[in-house]
């Protein structure tokens, strides 16, 4: 095996594939990067058995300046190999495997030799054979992930909640995540997906990695699903993730459809108020912030305190306040995550009672995005 390639273009693709490679794997070969070279392309593969990323570097793309002298394949120690390539002196790098599984890396006056492994021993990629491909707009997919993945559970006691439940039915894509203390649900109507139904649970960690990768490209994303894998295709990259097995809890009935008290306000300025209030609440053991609403006086006040340090109180600017008087306490971290997902839009927060979950929705699109937070009992 022997090829020469533009070093900086090679590094950018190495960085993509390295996202999937973990040094903590129980399968030693998965700490390596698989390279398969044929006459007109190089395929780089990295995997941690949950996520697999494959990048194709084509000789027809001039930016790679790829010249293949001899096809072949090898698995090289990923982190070590990428560090070497990043520190090489020349614009071009030549990689050659002569005898056995030893690779020679040459660039300018520098030459490295590192030991590799047989690519045949690298786990084979899952085969995703389906004619049910769904095209997702890059910006839309990024937004859906950003708005839902924050509610994914970090606890291992209920592994099914560590994923985002994604369904597609009658053209309606729905993504839901909950950790049993909060819930985020986003719906998007898709065109041209007649006859395609999905019901899958994608790990939150996979969604996070995917979001980071599609931020670097402008292409639409193709999504394909099989029994235990989902595949996202964008640019020259294939991103595979295993699916979580099991039944996701029924969440639709958790979202209340009535409210006794509602307020409308700017998400950005309310976020700043919560951040100020949580400066003190974080120092107390229970870490809660209290919201006091008195519609008759058009008053909305937020407060936080720490017995050791002091207290904070601030009146919140609102555009509408309706319903009954209410005092409710909640985890400020959950509220901050939710508010960030709304950006600078105006939101409506609906409450039923001090101990019942309350909802946040954007005022311009109340049907397709909802965040639900469970309050904290303080008495």
From TrEMBL:
Residues 1-126 form the DNA polymerase III beta sliding clamp N-terminal domain. One of its GO terms (cellular component) is cytoplasm. Residues 253-377 form the DNA polymerase III beta sliding clamp C-terminal domain. Residues 136-250 form the DNA polymerase III beta sliding clamp central domain. Transmembrane segments: none annotated. Confers DNA tethering and processivity to DNA polymerases and other proteins. Acts as a clamp, forming a ring around DNA (a reaction catalyzed by the clamp-loading complex) which diffuses in an ATP-independent manner freely and bidirectionally along dsDNA. Initially characterized for its ability to contact the catalytic subunit of DNA polymerase III (Pol III), a complex, multichain enzyme responsible for most of the replicative synthesis in bacteria; Pol III exhibits 3'-5' exonuclease proofreading activity. GO terms for molecular function: 3'-5' exonuclease activity; DNA binding; DNA-directed DNA polymerase activity. This is Beta sliding clamp. One of its GO terms (biological process) is DNA strand elongation involved in DNA replication. It comes from Limosilactobacillus frumenti DSM 13145. Pfam families: DNA_pol3_beta, DNA_pol3_beta_2, DNA_pol3_beta_3. CDD domains: beta_clamp. The keyword Electron transport does not apply. Forms a ring-shaped head-to-tail homodimer around DNA. PANTHER family: BETA SLIDING CLAMP (PTHR30478:SF0), DNA POLYMERASE III SUBUNIT BETA (PTHR30478). Keywords: Cytoplasm, DNA replication, DNA-binding, DNA-directed DNA polymerase, Nucleotidyltransferase, Transferase. InterPro entries: DNA_clamp_sf, DNA_polIII_beta, DNA_polIII_beta_C, DNA_polIII_beta_cen, DNA_polIII_beta_N. Belongs to the beta sliding clamp family. It comes from the Bacteria. The keyword Nucleotidyltransferase applies. It is found in: Cytoplasm. NCBIfam families: dnan.
């Amino acid at each position: 095996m022997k090829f020469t390639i533009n070093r900086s273009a090679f590094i950018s693709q190495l960085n993509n594939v390295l996202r999937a490679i973990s040094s903590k794997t129980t399968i030693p070969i998965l700490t390596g990067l698989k390279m398969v070279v044929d006459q007109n392309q190089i395929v780089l593969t990295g995997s941690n058995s949950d996520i697999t990323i494959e990048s194709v570097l084509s000789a027809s793309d001039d930016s790679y300046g790829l010249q293949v002298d001899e096809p072949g394949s090898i698995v090289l120690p990923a982190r070590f190999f990428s560090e070497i390539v990043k520190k090489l002196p020349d614009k071009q790098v030549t990689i050659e495997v002569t005898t056995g599984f030893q690779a020679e890396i040459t660039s300018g006056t520098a030459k490295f030799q590192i030991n590799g492994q047989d690519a045949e021993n690298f786990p084979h990629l899952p085969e995703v054979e389906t004619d049910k491909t769904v095209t997702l707009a890059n910006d839309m997919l990024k937004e859906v992930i950003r708005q839902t993945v924050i509610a994914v559970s970090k606890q291992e006691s209920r592994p099914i909640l560590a994923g985002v439940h994604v369904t597609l039915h009658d053209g309606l894509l729905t993504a839901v995540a909950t950790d049993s203390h909060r819930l985020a649900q986003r719906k998007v109507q898709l065109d041209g997906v007649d006859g395609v139904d999905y019901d899958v649970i994608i790990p939150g960690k996979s969604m996070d990695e995917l979001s980071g990768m599609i931020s670097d490209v402008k292409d639409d994303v193709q999504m394909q699903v099989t029994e235990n894998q989902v595949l996202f295709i964008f640019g020259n990259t294939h991103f595979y993730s295993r699916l979580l097995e099991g039944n996701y809890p029924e969440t639709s009935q958790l979202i209340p459809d009535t409210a006794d008290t509602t307020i409308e306000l700017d998400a950005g300025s309310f976020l700043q108020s919560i951040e100020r209030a949580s400066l003190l609440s974080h120092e107390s053991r229970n870490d809660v912030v209290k919201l006091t609403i008195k519609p008759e006086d058009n008053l909305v006040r937020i407060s936080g305190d720490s017995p050791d340090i002091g207290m904070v109180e601030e009146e919140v600017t609102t555009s509408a306040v309706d319903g009954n008087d209410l005092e409710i306490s909640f985890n400020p971290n959950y509220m901050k995550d939710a508010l960030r997902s709304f950006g600078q839009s105006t939101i409506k927060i609906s409450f039923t009672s001090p101990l019942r979950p309350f909802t946040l929705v954007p005022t311009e699109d109340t049907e397709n995005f909802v965040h639900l937070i469970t309050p904290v009992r303080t008495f």
